[in-house]
Amino acid sequence: MKNPKIIPLILFTCLFSKGIIAQCPIIPAPSSYLKFKDRFDFQNLIQTNFSLIPANIKAYFTTEMSVLFNLELKQMENIKPTISFLKVESAIHKDWYEIDVKTDHILISFSSDASCFYAINSFLQLIEKKGTETYIQNCKITDYPKFEWRGLHLDVSRHFFSVEEVKKYIDLMAFYKFNTFHWHLTDDQGWRIEIKKYPKLTETGAWRDSTVNNHYTTIPRTYSSEIYGGFYTQEQIREVVKYAESKYINIVPEIEMPGHARAALAAYPEFSCTGIQQNVPGLWGVFDDIYCSKKETIDFNIDILSEVLELFPSKYIHIGGDEAPKDRWKKCINCQRIILENNLKGEHELQSYFIKKIDKYLTSKGRKLIGWDEILEGGLSPNATVMSWRGTQGGIEAVKQGHAVVMSPGSHCYFDHYQSKNSGDAIAFGGFTSLEKVYSFEPIPAELSLQESKLILGAQANLWTEYIPNMKQLEYMTFPRALALSQVLWSVKKPSYKVFQDRLIKKHLFLLKQKDVNYSKAIFYPKMTISKTKNGIRYNFKSDLKDYQFIENNANQYGSNSKIEYLEEIKVNLDRQRIPNGETAALIVPFYLGLEIKPIYINYKLHELLGLPIKFITEPNERYSYNKELCLLDGIIGVTPWNSGEWLGFDTTEIIFEVNLLKEVEIKNVYLSFLDDASSWIHLPEKIIISTSINKKKWDVFPFTVEKNKNTYQINKNAKYIKYKILTKKSIPQNFPGEGKTPWTFMDEIMVNFE
Ligand code: ACM
Ligand code: ZN
């Protein structure tokens, strides 16, 4: 029998002679990276054998080498190249490539044009520049992608982005090996694609006369009265499609139906159920007026799609299908007649009927329909692919029915959510999706078998632009989170988050800066932890990146031993006797970002319940149980719209918890705060029942009906214990997203004697 102790020794010897498995600077990390001794030094003139690679890749490579590294690539006859290319006919994956860096020569092997392009982008990320020296560490990379759909989406309806801006977005996607650009071209607030047969779509539908200020849930609403809009001509669309093709990115256009059609209906009201002329709305949300399901409307959409197919060679065509309230259909004689004539069981089947007609058309043209997961309702069309956004459940259901799926759940893939807890960050749609959370995403749900998981094409992040008014903010919301997603989608084996973070900071933030990207620096923010003290609570701020010095303009400054300074702690506790109830203040936490001092802002409120013992009889859902014991009593007010982790989320119809005031206190009123965000399935509860007691034997009970914008409820009782019972709607009402499901209840700070 062999001695097993020999094995590690043999392995070690092998690795030494073949190279060392090491951290690779490339994002997304390649399948295999072996690092060797010595390096390839770039001379000013680099001989390159370009004859085997497409002209667009040659142009890209030459330009990027010059712009990023000031290096010139040349091809000269009869001179031995220092970089050469080799096309391999059969490889283990259609997009396989290999880079072999030796001291005197670099060989780039590839199996497809796209993989040649991926290899070039990897190559660019391998180059190190220190002072006047430019080099690549000798290494061998073997690589290919894990998922075939590696997508980013962009909503150009809520805010419009110019052709040049869209091209920059595509450039950045390409650099990080995304291959699918989901272009959301139509929505309620603006129609953005020229359709020759229906010129009013852009003459009228591309322009709105107002835009809501602040978050759309902020009451009272105010509006800016500027005319806002824009659209792409068919010529411009062709130009962008061609541009994306040159970077191996497929553009999937989205033409929304039957909902999110107000801009189209402003131009052609005859395709609605009522025929009433309405404007292009300047308010965000979900509107009752959608396309009628009558034949004329379906023909109208097919006409539009026939022009769209001329412009976009994509196999997949996205037809939306989300958030289509059925109120109008219920009252429309045309819609009801179709239900009767086709033996449909109500309006969900009518939507399915509508989508099936479109599916039939697209299939007849050799294309594939893709839609948001609402297209499952009323029966999935035979050839449809599902994009799962309301969690992954819709995707799982579609896979179980044998359909292909792209995962894009709000929890990990909505980049219109906040990424930091800094109250100074610009307003966002809501939700909290940190870089680390994106990185933790796994597109294949655990409940799928190996066979079923093959139907998961991949995933994408969505950039809805209600609160993204310009390119700078788009970059801020997209980066660096897109790099985390690219890693999720590309690598068969994802490195640890710590390794990813290290690569990001040491190399990629610098590259992003060079590419003039306004990326978020949220990863450098000190993290806040809140803990109880004897008489109150303590806020503590600490950066877990203290080993990095961050100097944005110079990559060589990364990784030094200097520390980001951070504040140890800020005490907010006061003698409980003297708490100035209701006083609001902002913690301004300074921290160093390189040589710059940046403040982050955290709003807090002092009140009598700070840090008191709380007992949950009903547990919050574990996904939304952030700092459970303190969350409702920590002084930090969950920002509306829904920001960060300050809200406790419950998915039960009854919620019960109890607070111990430690001594008898006169309670004039109680204050509760709930989130109201129907688009995220979060609803106000219906009733709250407050019980107070001084001995836990006898309880006084105060029932209240919950009202919108009301937080304070009169009690006027002495108490040592307060019990809270919250009753929600039994299910989400009709015509709201998530209809029929248990509503979520999100709660934040509870206070007493606070007006
Ligand atoms: C969506 O976010 N309404 C697909
Ligand atoms: Zn109708």
Describe the structure concisely for a colleague.
With 755 residues, this protein is of the alpha/beta class.
The helix tally amounts to 19
Average pLDDT confidence is 88
> What ions, cofactors and ligands are bound?
acetamide, zinc ion
Radius of gyration: 29 Å
CATH architecture grouping of the largest domain: Alpha-Beta Barrel
Distance between the ends:
81 Å
Main pleated-sheet profile: 9 strands, mixed
The total beta strand count reads: 35
* Structural class by SSE content: alpha/beta
- What's the number of domains? 4
Which overall shape is indicated by the principal axes computed on the Cα atoms?
Answer: globular
What would you give as the CATH superfamily of the largest domain? Glycosidases
Give the DSSP E fraction (strand runs of 2 or more residues).
25-35%
CATH top level of the largest domain? Answer: Alpha Beta
Written overview of the protein:
The protein is α/β, with parallel strands linked by helices. The protein has four domains: 112 residues, Chitobiase, domain 2 (2-Layer Sandwich), CATH 3.30.379.10; 372 residues, TIM Barrel; 81 residues, no CATH class; 149 residues, Sandwich (Jelly Rolls), CATH 2.60.120.1190. It is 25% helix and 27% strand. The chain has 19 helices and 35 strands. Strands 1, 2, 3, 4, 5, 6, 7, 8 and 9 form a nine-stranded mixed β-sheet that branches. Strands 10-11-18-19-20-21-22-23 form an eight-stranded parallel barrel, surrounded by five helices. Strands 29, 30, 31, 32, 33, 34 and 35 form a seven-stranded antiparallel β-sheet that branches. Strand 27 and strand 28 form a beta hairpin. The N terminus is likely disordered. Bound molecules: acetamide (ACM) and zinc ion. The site of acetamide has 4 residues, from loops.
